[in-house]
Amino acid sequence: MKKMYRAAAVVASFALALSIAGCAPNANSNSGSNGGDTGDSSAASQSLTLAYSEGGKTLNPAEANDGTSDTLVLAAYDQLVTYGTKEQDGKRVSDTATIVPMIASEWSVDDTNTVYTFTIREDITFHSGKTLTKTDVVRSFQHIADSSSASFLYGMAGISTVEEGEGNTVIITLTAPNHLFLQILPMYSFSMLDMDEVEKNGGAEWLSTNTAGSGPYIINSWDPATEAKLTRNEDYWGDEPQIDTINMKFIGDASNRLQLLKKDSVDVALEIAPKDLQGLDGTNGITVDSRPSNKILFFAMNNNVAPFDNEKVRQAITYAIPYDKLLTDVMKGEASPMRSSVASSTPGFTDAGNNATYDLDKAKQLLAEAGYADGFTFDFTLGSGFSDWNDDAVLIQAELAKIGVTMNIQNMARAQFLEALAGKNVQAYISRWTSFVNDPGYHLGLLMTDNGTSNYMNYHNAEVNELWAAAATEPDADKRSEMYGKMQEIINTESPWAYLYEYNIAVAHSDDIAGYTSYPDGLIRFFQLSITE
Amino acid sequence: MRTVLRRIAAMIPTLLGVIVLIFLITRVLPGDPARTLAGENAADSVVDKLREDMGLNKPLWQQFFDYCAGLFQGDLGFAWHTGRPVAEDFATRFPATVELALAALLIGILIGIPLGILGAMYRGRLADHVARVVALVGASMPLFWLGLLVISLFYGTLGWAPAPIGRIDDSMNPPTTITGLYVIDSILTGDMAALGSVLAHLFWPAMVLSVGAIAIISRMTRSAMLEVLGQDYIRTAQAKGMGPGKVIGGHALKNAAPSIVTIVGLELGQLLGGAVITETIFSWPGVGNYVVQSINATDYAPVQAMTLLAAVIYLVVNLLVDVSQGIFDPKVRNA
Prior knowledge:
- The structure holds two protein chains of two kinds.
- By secondary structure, chain A is α+β, with helices and mostly antiparallel strands.
- Chain A is 31% helix and 24% strand.
- Chain A is built from 16 helices and 20 strands.
- In chain A, strands 1, 8, 9, 10, 11, 12, 13, 14, 15, 16 and 17 form an eleven-stranded mixed beta sheet that branches. Chain A has a four-stranded antiparallel beta sheet with strand order 4-5-7-6. In chain A, strands 2-3-19 form a three-stranded mixed beta sheet, with no helix packed on it.
- The longest helix of chain A is centred in the N-terminal third of the chain and has 22 residues, at 2-23.
- The model of chain A is unreliable at 17-23 and 30-43 (pLDDT under 50).
- By secondary structure, chain B is an all-alpha fold.
- Chain B is built from 14 helices and two strands.
- Chain B has a two-stranded antiparallel sheet with strand order 1-2.
- In chain B, a hairpin with a 4-residue loop joins strand 1 and strand 2 (84-85).
- In chain B, helix 5 packs across helix 9, helix 9 (192-229) packs across helix 11 and helix 11 runs antiparallel to helix 13 (300-328).
- Chains A and B meet through helix 1, helix 4, strand 10, helix 7 and helix 13 of A and helix 2, helix 3, helix 5, helix 7 and helix 9 of B.
């Protein structure tokens, strides 16, 4: 009897499932043909598939802070102004010192250098169909000021008030003259949003998985676990984007991204390991576009902790770093020498005061002068997650051993490492840095001044602090550049860091893709790309 | 029936223990989630603001209370590293993992059990040695290496396998969601185009994932069969002139079934957890992949939810295995 019941239940549940199925539409009803949406049939349409390592965290422009999220934001949103571009060695690169119009067609600044008046274009519509107005701009700035992440940049730009002006203008008043202001505005964080749409959907929370922009692409779907699909905004106010559909694939494994590119399953692969890039260029119709970036790697020594509180000891270390080996053996040529605390592509870069070369005799001599003729032992903290850091640390350890210095490598998980850094007690560590705002003031202010929030090695020099404060409000670009040069010289001499290298950003793509332009943030702007046949 | 209810009631303290333990363990883990989320370039003000948003500035007991209160309302928390509720993330990813684990288990059963039977029947002969080597290789093969090898060979060189991304071809729409398991959904909707693509995508990662299961199932089947084959009633059956097929299938296998079912049940739990590496290598959008990312991001909620879910699955599978023993063995039925 019991068995009968069980059988009946099974039959009933199966019948139920079938009846539900009967109502459900079949997603690929034209069985046989592929019911996809890539539209290979029409010759005019161009589509592009890119392999990213991560799927991103949020679509909210003011909260995004990882490469994939930022890329999606730049595709879906416009900013008030943007960076210019220029040709350099036959490649298109950004010209971050030149700011060009975007949503604002023009702007002016008053005599005090604190009141900026932006004229807003009147022909821009959001994806929702609503026309972009000065009210949206003002409210977008409020959204940024209220955010967790970008509010920091808002403060750094020195914005005091944002108000609607006469006609179609927006007036932004700064607390003091600030040359960083215009350089920060083109960042993805300062995207202009359709705030009516945001409000209608319950506020900022909604923005983390939806967009309300006016940008060149519309994000149709986004699943951080698998992929994002974008289509061209057919009503875009600016130059029409060439490619009409973009598929971003999120592939965690680097060797798989490479395989997919080789097999032509994707058109562009990012974040390929330097060793895999060797020999890839020119094979199978693949181009490797590897360019210097302003992403730097440095070996930081804690100025508050012995023996690195001694300048001579720090200098000795800079002479014991095997610079060439790091570039060739670890980075396989996918990096270039770093000669100052700012990247060499930063305006105002100078390597004055930096004499460090690989010279063990000089290192020994400096150690003897510092009273450490017999060497010393120190703890080095290695954050996990980047294989090159690991290789660098081992090579440096071997060289330091030759001058009698014992470097104990302590491995730490990345989360733990970041927390330890924030405590400012780590004796020595390797870390990387990318200044999205390509300006020495931004860079040095965060890393090398007393108030710098990322000055984890406790570097302190009163003159550097004063120069930085003076440069921040100096309107004359040449005078400013001089001050930043002087700061770099002091830092180069005092050596709170040993400079390891400047990373290349390498994008491997099939030969027929054109228009790729590199930016300091390393992000790809899809609207610049096209496919040549 | 009463036994089953008693067993279910006994799960409650276990689950409570799991909840308290995992909450404490994630809190004791080094690393500040807000700092990790904000990244190394972030200012302290940003980190503080995030910490406040995440509720990490509250005292521990209050965080625990909030977490438990959320659990009772079916709220598994918020996954900061994806910017979505954990339950939502699980809903899209869990079916993928279940499908992969079930497929691997099926392969494990289809290959492992016959292999084990062969080994027992021809003990000490060639077939037994072959089965032993297969099991040894399967048990000792590092999954990530095998996965990369399979991709490189069958996708890269031979071109038999589809691109190792996702569960279905890019050009294809996923089948209409009914169960979330693509194979079943495409059969139910009669979507043969999708079915072909889904099976092609499922086959390779499932094969890779199943190697461990094949090894364990075949070894356990072999020893269970050997034990049974030495019993008097087998000799009696053979003496009566019963054919080897009937002896093995009718008598031996039926008596060895309880041990085999136990190991298969335990293996399902293993597979659900072990999918992590396979999912990462094949870009399979399941929970394994997701939990690894959560751990890297010190994102508490998804890790807690996954642990809780794993505990529930383990308990349920255990219960099912125990109950199923009754089907084979009348002595257990009323115990």
